[in-house]
Design a protein that fits this description.
63% of the residues lie in helices and 0% in strands. It is mostly helical and 188 residues long. Helix 3 runs antiparallel to helix 5 and helix 3 packs parallel to helix 6.
Length: 188
């Protein structure tokens, strides 16, 4: 009896190797999860290398600007609650009822604080972006001539405006996205 052979196309071989590499990459990510400090130190070192490359080569400013805008976007998603109280308040006004998850007293805060972008996904996306930016800094195609002081000033203005808006949002809805400085209960 003849047993039919599985499909031996080149696409199948590539798919097998790709899935094997994906599983190995995921295993390394899973193993690195508890080492928060080491992960962030590694990302900071990679970011310093990216900036050193840009400063020493005196080019690729548009790559630095793009990475900076992306990291700012990730940071804002990290600071924002998953269930935005302003959105639920707007929905409550449309429905005609008040939302009970908003703070009602001066000492009350939005609980629980669940981030829109969890720390691990923030780190992973930031590190990938920094790595891609580092690779792009070695390709002459991405060395677009720009007047870099304008990009720096624009990024600073964008950072100040978005952070001011985020801080006003945090004050208005009384939530703190960080665990330090918060009252801890149940510890002796």
């Amino acid at each position: 009896m003849d047993v039919p052979e599985p499909d031996q196309s080149p696409f199948t071989a590539v798919s097998v190797h790709t899935s094997k590499l994906t599983r190995q990459y995921q295993a390394y990510l899973d193993a690195s999860t508890p080492y928060t400090t080491y992960r962030w130190v590694g990302s900071a070192v990679l970011l310093v290398l990216l900036f050193l490359r840009i400063i020493l080569a005196q080019g690729w400013y548009i790559v630095a600007y793009t990475v900076g805008i992306y990291l700012l976007n990730l940071f804002l998603a990290f600071l924002t609650p998953k269930f935005d109280p302003s959105m639920s308040q707007d929905e409550g006004l449309e429905d005609g009822d008040a939302d009970s998850s908003l703070p009602t007293k001066q000492d009350d805060e939005f609980k629980p604080f669940i981030r829109r972008l969890p720390e691990f996904k923030f780190w992973h996306s930031a590190t990938r972006a920094i790595f891609i930016g580092f690779v792009c800094c070695w390709l002459p195609f991405f060395d677009i001539p720009v007047f870099w002081p304008v990009l720096v000033v624009y990024w600073i203005i964008l950072f100040v405006l978005t952070m001011r808006r985020q801080i006003q949002h945090m004050i208005k809805y009384r939530y703190v996205p960080f665990s330090f400085g918060k009252t801890r209960y149940g510890r002796s």
